[in-house]
From TrEMBL:
Protein name: Large ribosomal subunit protein bL32
HAMAP family xref list: Ribosomal_bL32
Signal peptide positions (record): none
Keyword Signal: no
Gene of this entry: rpmF
Length: 60
């Protein structure tokens, strides 16, 4: 029976997994603000699902 001569390091073990891939974030067009924003997040202008939720953050 084959026995490894040395222990496999964590760095080498973790590089074996090739099914981890980067995915592009989902972006939608918000008709209330006219901007593109990420899904399920409050926009920079304070809108969520077309309704005003919070006050807009002021840029310095």
């Amino acid at each position: 029976m084959a026995v490894p001569a040395r222990r496999t390091s964590k760095a080498k073990k973790n590089k074996r997994r090739t099914h981890y891939k980067l995915t592009a974030p989902t972006v939608k067009f918000d008709e209330a603000t006219g901007d593109y924003s990420r899904s399920h997040r409050v926009s920079l202008k304070g809108y969520y699902k077309g309704r005003k939720i919070t006050k807009a953050a002021k840029a310095k």
